[in-house]
Amino acid sequence: MRLLVAAAIVVLVAACKRPESPPVGAAKNTLADSADQILFNARFVITDKGLRRADIDGDTAYFFHDNTLLVMTPLRMKAYSSNGALDGIVTARMGVYDTRLAKLEASGDVVMNSLDGKRLETPFARYDQRLDLISSDSAFYMSEPGRDIRGRGFRTDAGMNSFSVTTLLSSKPGRVTIP
Predict the structure, then answer these.
(1) Residue 177: per-residue pLDDT
(2) How far is CA 20 from CA 17, 116, 147, in A?
(3) pTM of the complete model
(4) Long-range contacts, 36-44 (Cβ 8 Å, 24+)
(5) Domains of the chain, residue spans
(6) Is 58 or 6 the better-scoring residue by pLDDT?
(7) Model confidence at 22, in pLDDT bands (50, 70, 90)?
(8) Which residues of 97-136 are buried (b: 16+ CB within 10 A; e: fewer)?
(9) Which residue stretches of the chain are H helix?
(10) SS3 13
């Protein structure tokens, strides 16, 4: 009889255990939690003294600091030269554009393509609109027909016509065309 009562108590205690409920929401903060505004399928035209310098677009744009800071995911940018011709295309997982400083920071699988076949890959790059300068202190790989360069840190224009390397890691030589 005692054995039967003990077994019944064990069964009752096991049956009284409260099941865990699933979590209601994510435990992490997202950009949408603190953004002033959110825009989907966003597209912006960046101008300088009336001249089109870049088209920037992304699937989602988050606005911060009285709409002076934009975070776009993913980032797609078309850069234009001083005469208005398309210079290059930049893509990245995320871009942060500061309208007060006219600077864009691209991060996450940044890829730059020029119209003459040059391609640059890096995890991070900065674009300064005032100087028409793209730079990074991260590792990069640049390829063009007949030449490959690996290094750390670079400075270039959007068309990758003027390219300087901070630290050269390896290079496969090729022809250099002097305009």
Answers:
(1) 61
(2) 9, 60, 60
(3) 0.76
(4) 36/63, 36/64, 36/65, 36/66, 36/67, 37/62, 37/63, 37/67, 38/62, 38/63, 39/63, 42/72, 44/70, 44/97
(5) 31-172
(6) 58
(7) low
(8) bebeeebbbbbeebebebeeebebebeebbbebeebebbb
(9) 2-15, 31-34
(10) helix
Would you say residue 12 has pLDDT above 60?
A: no
State how far the Cα of 67 lies from the Cα of 45, in Å rounded to an integer.
15
Q: Please report the pLDDT score of residue 19 as a whole number.
A: 62
31-172 has CATH 2.60.450.10 classification:
yes
Q: Which amino acid is at 51?
A: L
Instruction: List, for residues 92-117, the tens digit of each pLDDT value.
Output: 999 999 989 989 999 999 999 998 88
How many helices and strands, by DSSP H and E, does the chain display?
2, 11
Residue 11 CB neighbour total at 10 angstroms: 10
Give the whole-angstrom CA distance, residue 4 versus residue 127. 78
Fill in the amino acid letter for 105: E
> Taking the CB of residue 163, how many other CB atoms lie within 10 A of it?
16
Q: What is the token pair recorded at 71? A: 């975070």
Q: Are 78 and 54 in contact (CB under 8 A)?
A: yes
